[in-house]
Design brief:
- This protein has 818 residues and is of the alpha+beta class.
- It has 26 helices and 35 strands.
- Strands 26, 27, 28, 29, 30, 31, 32, 33, 34 and 35 form a 10-stranded mixed sheet that branches. A 7-stranded mixed sheet has the order 1-2-4-3-5-9-6. It has a 7-stranded antiparallel sheet with strand order 15-14-17-12-16-13-18.
- Strand 26, helix 22 and strand 27 form a beta-alpha-beta unit.
- Helix 1 runs antiparallel to helix 13, helix 3 runs parallel beside helix 6 and helix 6 packs across helix 13.
- The longest helix has 21 residues.
């Protein structure tokens, strides 16, 4: 009864939410000099206004946390009572003490609520809402609320994407507002404002942390670890408003309390929406399985995570009305709905503050006694990938350990996919769930994702050991372990021992090695590679290992630069002294790739983004980017490799590709880009493809799923002796998002053969299982002097599937063998 009275009082205040305050602070409309909701606001003006509030009010603290790729500021406001703001650092530390991240007893009992807006840039009501929420919370009627809470307002998680949307929309603005859906202000130009600078979906990047915005934001998040997190979104205009509880499937590591609180909150939201005669829905579409959403990632970090979605999106503009929808959708209306749920969220958090703090503390002090250990045996082949995977886990606050005493244990082998008995040795890598972030660890490393409903919104599998090609052992057996202490690599060498018969040997075992070779190539250092295994002093130097002759480095005046790069990258080189004609015949110079990639309306922006990011940030290698609609202006005379990411390409591109291959070029086709070869009859793949690939989406899958792959992991068999699989285990794992496959080639190279009809993890429809048998997902063939590579699935998916990146790199830097 007391809670009902409390809530009723707040409801009454909501109906008075538009009255004019006596306070002297300027409202967003007064500061911007236009009524909020009558125009989209540029990010710098949002920053100016919220900085103004922080400068004028003792209830606001401005906290910068970085810059985007395009240099826009990333920042949050902390809004609370004057007393809380004065003691903000102590409150923050108390919150961490409650969870056990730092020592000491918490001196404060304040709950932290984090409101995140505009992670998708073209869902642009969000940042407008943030300004209104920050201003309204400063009114005296919220004084008691602010004594209970610290409210973190992140006004724009994706400033680059938002300004891309706002610039596009404002450029099309005129005197009159047109509501018709087909008019130009309702149609975004490619690549749209949804994505960040590198065209990544930032609401799929929370766990992987590939993008700078994600890295900066999660670093700040881990300084606070709030009890409540809300991610504000917009969906297409035909939908109403969504708030939790989430739809199935819900990940098993989401706690009972988190699900219960979503239901409690939902009841409050429903009551308010009904009082306003607003349409809404819940428990549909938006699930809580994939761990790299904003709501799921924050759940695994101890908060109750929410997603709020409302009809609008970039399509709606300032005002939208279609023949099918009876109601007009306006930006002002969209702002109001997200504003009300923002305020309701804080009210509810204040009401349930004590329960939130207790459950938050319990989350980080679980009583479950079962401890799972994930163990990897390091080798010279997998050491780089272990470090790369460790970097993702350490960003989550996960601690790495190592075995201190060897023993035989039983556990689940990721590569064998069954229970095995194995000897673990001293020095083996261990990640154990008996730590603060043990729940997150289980989620990211679990070999098989469990779910109850195949109708999902995103990937159904993501296990990091498969992403990095690491044969991990999952065990509950007791082992002795200690904290991991990294050892320094000695990258220096004794120059006095170098002679004209000296060769430096570098590994090609991971994408880190690819990046190093790419750097050396850009410095005009010739790169050699071994075309066959070579036995030297009872030691095999492997085919594909990278070779640099000391004599050649000296003659080209590149030795000092070579040595500097090796030392800067902390690389240990093998040095051999050999004077053997057989050796020299087995070393060939690697041709430097000169690469063109295509962008534009024909191209899937996210898939293009993963390709662009791979070159720009993963291996740091320059490429030429051409627009597909400027095909007649292409100058490919200085290019030897063309890569097409997923898209629907015109017949003009097909003609261009045929000509390029015929002249000796290399073409790499990803996903539906494979369709460009349909009219190139000279290619065996073109003759054998029974029909065009289907352009399809995995998202918001509805209806039958028997013939679909919903982001599952499949095992492929690679040719063990081929340069194309150099550095990748014979067992290669790929994420499959579509139902496409390749026919087996008689005269080409069937590189990625499907070896098992069952998915390693995730959902694969029963009908599709039958169709995939006896086919491949990666292939290649020669045509005249050229060569073509086919990848049915994106090996660069979301910037975290590192083993896919490595295999893809081989296609670029190595040629098909004779």
């Amino acid at each position: 009864m007391q809670r009902l009275l409390f809530y009723s009082q707040w409801i009454c205040l909501f109906f008075l939410s538009t009255f004019s305050y006596s306070q002297t602070l300027k409202s967003p409309s007064e500061f911007l000099e236009y009524n909020l909701g009558t125009q989209f606001t540029y990010h710098h003006k949002i920053h100016d206004y919220l900085s103004y509030l922080a400068g004028q009010s003792l209830k606001v603290e401005y906290i910068p946390y970085g810059k985007t790729y395009e240099g826009r500021p990333l920042f949050v406001l902390a809004v609370s009572s004057e007393g809380n703001i004065q003691n903000l650092e102590s409150i923050r530390q108390s919150n961490l003490q409650r969870a056990g991240f730092i020592k000491g007893e918490p001196a404060y009992t304040k709950a932290v609520v984090w409101l995140g807006y505009n992670v998708h840039g073209n869902e642009a009501s969000g940042s407008e809402v943030a300004m209104k929420v920050a201003y309204e919370l400063l009114d005296i009627k919220y004084e008691e609320l602010l004594k209970d809470l610290v409210i973190i307002i992140d006004p724009c998680l994706n400033p680059d994407g938002r300004d891309r949307y706002v610039n596009n929309f404002r450029a099309k603005g005129g005197v009159f507002i047109n509501q018709k859906p087909a008019t130009w202000e309702h149609v975004e130009a490619w690549p749209t404002g949804r994505y960040n600078h590198y065209l990544f979906d930032l609401n799929r990047d929370w766990a992987w942390g590939t993008q700078i915005e994600t890295k900066h934001r999660t670093n700040l998040y881990k300084q606070w670890y709030p009890q409540i997190f809300v991610d504000f979104h917009e969906m297409m205009p035909q939908y109403s408003y969504f708030f939790g509880p989430s739809a199935d499937p819900i990940h098993k590591e989401v706690t009972t309390w988190q699900k219960k609180y979503q239901k409690i909150a939902s009841a409050k939201y429903e009551t308010y929406f009904q009082s306003q005669d607003w349409e809404y829905f819940t428990r549909k579409v938006f699930d809580l399985l994939y761990p790299s959403y904003g709501d799921s990632w924050t759940c695994f970090n101890g908060a109750v995570g929410f997603t709020f979605e409302q009809g609008g999106h970039g399509v709606a503009g300032l005002s939208y009305k279609s023949k099918r929808e009876a109601k007009e959708i306006t930006l002002e209306g969209r702002i109001q709905k997200h504003f009300e749920t923002s305020i309701l969220t804080t009210i509810l958090a204040s009401e349930y503050k004590d329960e939130l703090l207790k459950e938050y503390e319990d989350f980080f002090h679980p009583t479950n006694s079962t401890i799972t250990k994930f163990i990897i045996t390091p080798t010279k082949h997998n050491s780089n990938n272990i470090e790369l995977m460790t970097s993702i886990l350490e960003r989550q606050g996960i601690v790495r350990e190592e075995v201190s005493k060897g023993k035989v244990v039983k556990g689940y082998s990721y590569f064998d996919q069954e229970e095995v008995k194995r000897k673990v040795e001293k020095g083996d890598v261990v990640f154990s769930t008996d730590q603060k972030m043990g729940r997150m660890l289980k989620v990211l490393l679990e070999p098989k994702a469990e779910f109850t409903d195949s109708t999902t919104y995103d990937l159904t599998a993501w296990s990091l050991p498969y992403a990095f090609g690491l044969d991990m052992l999952e065990t509950e057996d007791e082992i002795e372990k200690t904290l991991y202490k990294p050892t320094l690599v000695n990258s220096s060498f004794d120059e006095s021992t170098l002679t004209d018969s000296t060769f430096f040997i570098l590994q090609w075992e991971s994408v880190s090695d690819v990046k190093l070779i790419a750097q050396l190539m850009q410095e005009e250092i010739k790169v050699g590679y071994l075309t066959e295994d070579f036995l030297f002093k009872n030691q095999t130097i492997s085919k594909g290992d990278i070779v640099f002759p000391y004599f050649g480095l000296m003659m080209s005046h590149k030795f000092d630069l070579f040595k500097k790069i090796i030392e800067e990258n902390n690389i240990s080189t093998q040095i051999i002294h050999i004077n053997d004609a057989k050796w020299e015949k087995k070393v060939e110079v690697m041709e430097r790739p000169r690469i063109a990639i295509l962008a534009g309306e024909d191209v899937n922006p996210v898939k293009f983004g993963s390709l662009w990011y791979y070159f720009d940030k993963i291996i740091e290698y320059p490429v030429d980017v051409f627009y597909t609609d400027k095909v007649t202006g292409f100058d490919l005379s200085k290019v030897n490799t063309v890569i097409l990411s997923d898209g629907e390409y015109s017949s003009k591109i097909s003609v261009l590709i045929k000509d390029f291959i015929g002249k000796g070029g290399k073409v790499i086709l990803l996903e539906n880009a494979i369709n460009v070869i349909e009219e190139i009859d000279e290619l065996e793949m073109s003759k054998k493809m029974s029909k065009s690939f289907n352009m399809e989406t995995m998202l918001i899958t509805k209806g039958k799923t028997e013939n679909k792959a919903l982001g599952c992991i499949l095992e492929l068999s690679l040719p063990s002796s081929s340069l194309i699989s150099k550095g990748v285990e014979k067992e290669y794992f790929t994420i499959k998002e579509n139902s496409n496959k390749l026919p087996l080639l008689s005269h080409g190279y069937n590189i990625g053969l499907i070896t098992k009809s069952e998915a390693i993890s995730g959902y694969l429809g029963e009908e599709l299982k039958k169709k995939l048998g006896g086919s491949s997902l990666i292939a290649a063939e020669k045509y005249n002097k050229g060569q073509v590579f086919y990848y049915v699935d994106n090996p660069l998916i979301r910037g975290f599937w590192v083993n896919g990146m490595h295999l893809f790199s081989n296609s670029i830097f190595f040629d098909l063998e004779r």
